[in-house]
Structure formats: C-alpha cells, structure tokens
Task: structure prediction
Amino acid sequence: MVAETSSHGPVAIVTGAGRGIGRGIAVTLAERGHRLIITSRTAGDLEQTRDLIVDAGSSGVVVVADLKDPGTPSLLLRSALDSFGRIDGLVNNAALNNFAPFWDQTDRDLDDMIETNLTAVFFLCREVAGYWVRNGLTGAIVNISSAEDTIAYPDQVPYASSKGGLLSATKVLALELGPFGIRVNAVSPGSVDTEMTPDIYRREAPKLIPIGRLGEPREIGACVSFLLSDDASYVTGTSIYADGGYMLQ
Amino acid sequence: MTGRLSGKNAIVTGAASGIGRATARRLSGDGAGLLCVDRDEKGLADLLASLSGPHVALAADLSLPSACTTVVQTALERWDGRIDILVNAAAVLIRQPILEHSRETWDLTIDINLKAPFRLARDVVASMIEESIRGAVVNVGSIEAVLPIAGHAAYTASKGAVTMLTRSAAFETAPYGIRVNAVAPGATATGMNADLRENDPDRWRKMLAGTPMGRHAQPEEIASVIAFLVSDEASYVTGAVVTADGGWTLH
Result:
C-alpha cells in the first residue's frame, strides 16, 4: 500500500511546510496520496514534516531554500522532476507576518513581507506554470492567502497589502492560465491554531469567531486538497474563505 | 473518498434534473441517505431507479409554503428527527426583459429560488439545533448574484438574495456548529439553459468564449463542490460562497 502510494500519487510542492498551516497542508495532502516537495528555510522543521508525511504513507523530499533567492523556483521544480518525474500541484503557503502600527513598520518589514508573501509566489508560479504550458501539461495552483485579503485588521498594513496583492495575482493567473487547463485558486484562512498563534487568540476565539474556535491547520489542508483535486475541475480564480465565519461580522 | 457521508441524511431539492440531480447522485455515491425533492415526479422516479441506497423521493411544489413544511416533516419522520444535510438546488429561471417582467414571474422566482431555501433552511436548522446535530446547509447561488444577465431580473435578484441568506444563516447558526455555505456556478449545462444551447448555440458559444476555461461546466462539477462543502472536509468553512465558474467572473 505504502509503496503504491509512493510511486503513483500526484506530486505537489508546498512552501513554508516546516510549521503551522504549511505542515498541516503537507500532511493532509500526504494522507490523500500526494507525494511532496516540502520547502522552508529550516531543515529541522522540514525533517519533522517529512517524518509525518512518511507516517501518512507517502513520500516527501526536503528542500531547504530561501524563497527570496532567485534560484529557488528552478531548484524546487527540478527537485520535483528529479525526485518524482512530474509536478501536478503547487501550494504557495510560506508567509511572514508582524503586528505593528504602520508608522512603526520599517522598510525592511515591508520588503520582507512583500517579497515573501507576494513576489516569491509570482516567481514560483511563473516557473511551474511555465513548465506546464511549455510542455502541454496541466496542473493546479493554490495560494494561501488570508481573510485579510478582504477585511482590515489593525497593525497589519504590510501583511494585508501582500495578501490583497496575492488575491489579485491569483485572479489574473487564473485568467491567463485557464485556456491551458491550469487552475489557480486561493484559500483564505481566518485565525488558525499554530505554534505562531498568540495565546490571546486562543483565549478570545469563542468570542471573536462565530464558530467559536480557531481553525486547525488540517482544515486548511482539506480545502487545499479539494482545490487541487478534480472535484474542483470548474473552480478557478476564486478563494475559499475558511474562517469559521469570521468575515460575517 | 467514497463513504465520507456514510450515515448522513440529506435533503436535496431540485433533484430530478441538472445540478440537483448530479448532487443527489454524488451524495448517494459518498454514502448519504437521501430525500430527493422536485416537482417532476417522473424525473424523481428515474433518479431513484438509477441509485442504490435507502433513498426516498417526494414530489412537491416548493413555491407553496406548505410543501416546504411537508418536506421537512417527511425527512424528520423518515430519519427519526435526524437531518444532517440540506442542499437547496431547486430554482427556476424565466427569461423576460425587465419591462416585461410580470408579477407572476417575479413571485414564482422569488418563491422557489429564495423563500423555499429560507423556509427549508429555517426548519432544518431548527431540527439540527434540537437534536444537537452539527449539520451543513448548501444553497446553490449563481455568479449572477454579482454579474447580471439581460432578461434575468427576477432570477438575478433571487440569487443575490440567496447569497446574503447564506451569510446571515451561517452567522446565526455557527455557534451551534452548523455550517451554511453556497456554491455560485457559472455556465452549467442543465435544463435551465438547454433551449439556449440548442436554439441559439452561437450566443452560448460567445458567452463561453469569455470564460478563461473556455467551456461550460457539467452539473457533476458543481455537485462535487457541494459534496465538499457538506462534508467534514469543509469543517472550518462557513458563510462562504465558492465560485465555480471556470473563471467567468474574473473580468
């Protein structure tokens, strides 16, 4: 069973897969038979994620890389092709966030967030979608955005800007790649329970979120799995808001 | 993922044709027991003959408030009070230029497309709260909630309303663990547009030419979105409208 899953499943790249939502996505996809290229800047985190992928009966290849490095997109694509001989999906999950009044945000803060959350996604999409288009192949891309691509939250100017840009990029990519049978969508999570989640979110969740709790990384993974699958064959250029109803308020 | 709805009881309206029929087939395949509702008795009989499973059909005209009551009562009796899923797929589209839109067109469209989903959702949700069931409701909206098509005034208004019905019902029921979502299909090959596809294929093709994916959806491709939304896979998704339009509304 394990061997079969490992040699035939679709192949996806997941960025920011060492922790939090990215790890949840990677493990959820592994459970559904995906083979994975997992990347982040931290080897130790990725190795733990890879162990979980193997436990789920699939295989994962660790690529330690900085998405700000111009060589990273081709490195990731090459890793997928060298390791598995194919690439079917791309999940752009890696993101940075900080909380500060916008007049205290530094040039560096802004550059880091725009570069990681938006620019890196553009270059990786270009690499992978370019490969599909040039080779007459198809695939699906899922960008992990945020409820903040639409609603405002204080102290989040760079992050929200990057996610608003990501949602727009998702739409244009879908428009341009639709004729090639390549689908591009987003999942926009609300507050998800990860090691990065401030304790106050956990405490306040029942009051702040209609569904009464934070989301789990696996619940974001399940949305990604749906969007990568043929069940979403007519879904492109949209975002699934997985926010427990947060945006209804 | 066959079997992910095993043991769940689902009401599907508009089940005799189009998206409703594809949804009934898909949910049955995923293991749910169904109450299939439609005006079209023969269509329901055909559907049930094609499905295996402990399903029932109920012919009902959902423009009548009493019919909505009967649907929920039938389900509650059949399933001993336990309804897990409601899919509101029944809808009508009557094409008339806005200045010729009749009172009858308006009322029938609003009754079936908006009031019936409201009445059914209200009564189903009440039973879910009563039975502590963390159920799911999916309404079939339309991209016409955001993008009007000439001659569709009542339909477009009804679908815009369904979007906000979805969001308000989701907001109020979230504390009970009940999820309410909508799918907004684009051009989908159903009986609703069969005449257009057959009699005016050029217009249909022209419409699709602006769709990035360059084709219309099969009803099964909308049913698969609904199947996701009613399943536990969408456990943190509520109040959402999932657009399934092949990119039509992108520009």
Remarks:
- The beta strands of chain A are 11-15, 35-40, 60-64, 89-92, 140-144, 183-189, 239-242.
- The mean pLDDT of chain A is 95.
- The interface with chain B takes residues 171-172, 174-179, 181, 189-190, 210-212, 215-216, 219-220, 222-223, 225-226, 230-238, 240-245, 247-249 of chain A (CB under 8 Å).
